[in-house]
């Protein structure tokens, strides 16, 4: 021991200063005394100095403490059996010095375990030699190449082991928890050292929190997501960076056993960044996997469609038409497309209808959107956090059924404040914008439909003859009719809105007794024809009113047959002829008179 202290006080190497700074303190506690012995001789050692000379050759013993293997830590002092005082190696050596010795021993133990041709004595000689080599390097003993005799172990094996031990130490600093004891007393000091593997592996498995949205959708990918691995919860000391592949798996990274902290550094395509710091417990020799479910980017801002009348621009239908019940087909595609390259089959399809909804001010709107209360048929909606959403991709919407009383042809969509009229299919894309998913274009559109329009024609007939020709000098021409709206909702006729029971149009018969409108005059609904002026020679009080219904676009309701015509009673009078004598001026009885119609030329004889 005195030689070791003397060398520590006089050594010039940097490692030696660590030990020389530590005082040698006597320990008197009986509980700290351990029996040490050299149990048996294991083979010859050649004490080779750094200059190549062999200082000595001796038969080394197998050192033990209470029956457990130990090693000489003072090559320059002879060993004596007896009780020695144990102290932690850290009181005499730095952590690096302890690790150098412990890791060298660990390597030799692993080597001999895999080389069964070496016996336990040869194994011990190799272990003892690497202990001396490390201490010589640290303490300046100048015997860095101390070895077993080549008669004990071949030069090739020893060269391989000693070089391997150095490489193992270099490669495994920090991977093992190293420690040891130093036993001091009379004679040579001995030591015990151990290296316990203190690392495991950490990796990340990335998944989707909403696979219904992301599975099979190329707009979402795990590839390229990066994660930082940290030793502290504050994520200030980064140990490694992990990158996910297309399946969401990262490679393993070796870390010290215990708790490491992982957070996402960059999100992959289609996903929101997870800012959570995740704790992961790593066990020695095992791989711990952190499974992280990232939230896909979706849009909760869905499109609202407001049905309006094309002519009035209002949400009030004309006549008996309705803006409720219009149907729209929505098609979602899990890719980015335009009108020219849309796939033949959509990923999901829905049909919705317009529903009447009342605002707080009492105004009624007819609305359709992607929600259960509007759904007619189709696939299930995409949902996230309890809300209907749309994933990244392409959406089209087409009006496929006009509401009652309106035409599908010519319908168009128009965003608020825009003059663009979108006819046919509307296409929009849902794309990433930072941490959000947004719709291109507006999220509110008015959808304008054109109301069905038709017309009417009526025939005027003589009530007595049922013919379309007037009697006598009367005429069926110039009969006037009022067309009256019977609809609760207003109608637009020739640019003016008319309410219920108002006359929307006056028509007049021609020489043929027919009065007619154009084929597109009257909006879908109920109307009444009422004669307001009889033709010359006819009475008006006998004329009936006729109700009719406009239901087909461009069609004139024909009321010219006998069952629907309007009949008028001809005006009639009587002629009384009196014949008197020329001289007497007395009435003559039974005198015949011939009465001839100037209109028809028909004559008849009547006696008065």
Automatic annotation (TrEMBL):
<dbReference type="InterPro" id="IPR013783">
    <property type="entry name" value="Ig-like_fold"/>
</dbReference>
<dbReference type="Pfam" id="PF17802">
    <property type="entry name" value="SpaA"/>
</dbReference>
<comment type="similarity">
    <text>Belongs to the serine-aspartate repeat-containing protein (SDr) family.</text>
</comment>
<feature type="domain" description="SpaA-like prealbumin fold">
    <location>
        <begin position="463"/>
        <end position="561"/>
    </location>
</feature>
<keyword id="KW-0964">Secreted</keyword>
<feature type="domain" description="SpaA-like prealbumin fold">
    <location>
        <begin position="214"/>
        <end position="294"/>
    </location>
</feature>
<keyword id="KW-0732">Signal</keyword>
<dbReference type="InterPro" id="IPR041033">
    <property type="entry name" value="SpaA_PFL_dom_1"/>
</dbReference>
<protein>
    <submittedName>
        <fullName>Cna protein B-type domain protein</fullName>
    </submittedName>
</protein>
<feature type="signal peptide">
    <location>
        <begin position="1"/>
        <end position="29"/>
    </location>
</feature>
């Amino acid at each position: 021991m005195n030689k070791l202290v003397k060398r520590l006080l006089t050594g010039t190497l940097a490692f030696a200063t660590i030990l020389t700074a530590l005082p040698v303190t006597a320990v008197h506690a009986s509980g700290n005394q351990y029996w040490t012995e050299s149990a048996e001789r294991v083979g010859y050692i050649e004490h080779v100095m750094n200059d190549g000379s062999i200082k000595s050759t001796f038969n080394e013993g197998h050192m033990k403490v209470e029956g457990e293997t130990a090693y000489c830590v003072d090559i320059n002092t002879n060993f004596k059996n007896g009780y020695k005082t144990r102290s932690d190696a850290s009181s005499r050596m730095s952590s690096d010095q302890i690790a150098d010795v412990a890791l060298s021993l660990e390597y030799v133990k692993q080597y001999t375990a895999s080389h069964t041709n070496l016996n336990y004595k040869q194994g011990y000689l190799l272990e003892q030699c690497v202990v001396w080599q490390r201490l010589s390097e640290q303490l300046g003993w100048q015997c860095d190449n101390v070895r077993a005799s080549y008669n004990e172990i071949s030069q090739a094996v020893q060269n391989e082991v000693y070089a391997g031990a150095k490489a193992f130490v270099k490669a495994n600093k920090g991977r093992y928890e190293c420690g040891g004891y130093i036993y001091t007393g009379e004679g040579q000091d001995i030591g015990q050292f151990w290296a316990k593997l203190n690392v495991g592996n950490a990796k990340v498995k990335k998944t989707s929190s909403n696979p219904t949205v992301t599975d099979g959708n190329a707009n979402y990918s795990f590839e390229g997501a990066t994660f930082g691995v940290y030793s502290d919860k504050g994520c200030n000391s980064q140990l490694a960076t992990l990158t996910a592949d297309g399946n969401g798996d990262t490679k393993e990274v070796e870390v010290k056993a215990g708790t490491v902290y992982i957070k996402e550094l960059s999100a992959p395509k289609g996903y929101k960044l997870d800012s959570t710091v995740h704790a992961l417990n790593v066990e020695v020799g095992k791989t711990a996997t952190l499974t992280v479910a990232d939230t896909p980017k979706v849009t909760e801002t869905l499109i609202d469609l407001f049905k309006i009348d094309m002519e009035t621009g209002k949400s009030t239908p004309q006549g008996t038409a309705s803006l409720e019940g219009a149907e729209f087909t929505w098609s979602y595609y899990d890719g980015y497309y335009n009108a020219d390259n849309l796939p033949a089959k959509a990923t999901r399809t829905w049909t919705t209808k317009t529903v009447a909804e009342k605002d707080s001010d009492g105004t009624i709107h007819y609305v359709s959107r992607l929600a259960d209360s509007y759904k007619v048929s189709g696939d299930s909606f995409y949902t996230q956090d309890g809300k209907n959403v749309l994933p990244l991709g392409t959406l089209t919407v087409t009006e496929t059924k006009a509401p009652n009383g309106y035409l599908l042809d010519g319908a168009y969509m128009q965003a608020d404040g825009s003059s663009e009229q979108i006819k046919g299919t509307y296409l929009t894309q849902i794309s990433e914008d930072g941490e959000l998913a947004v719709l291109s274009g507006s999220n509110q559109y008015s959808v304008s439909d054109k109301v069905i329009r038709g017309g009417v024609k009526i025939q005027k007939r003589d009530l007595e003859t049922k013919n379309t020709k007037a009697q006598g000098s009367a005429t069926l021409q110039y009969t006037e009719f009022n067309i009256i709206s019977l609809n609760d909702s207003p109608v637009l006729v020739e640019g003016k809105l008319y309410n219920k029971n108002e006359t929307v149009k006056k028509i007049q018969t021609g020489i043929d007794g027919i009065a007619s409108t154009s084929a597109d005059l009257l909006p879908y609904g109920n109307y009444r024809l009422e004669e307001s002026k009889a033709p010359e020679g006819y009475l008006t009080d006998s004329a009936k009113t006729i109700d009719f219904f406009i239901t087909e676009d461009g069609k004139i309701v024909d009321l010219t047959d006998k069952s629907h015509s309007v009949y008028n009673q001809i005006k009639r009078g009587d002629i009384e002829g009196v014949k008197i004598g020329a001289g007497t001026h007395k009435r003559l009885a039974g005198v015949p008179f011939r009465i001839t119609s100037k209109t028809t030329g028909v004559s008849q004889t009547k006696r008065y």
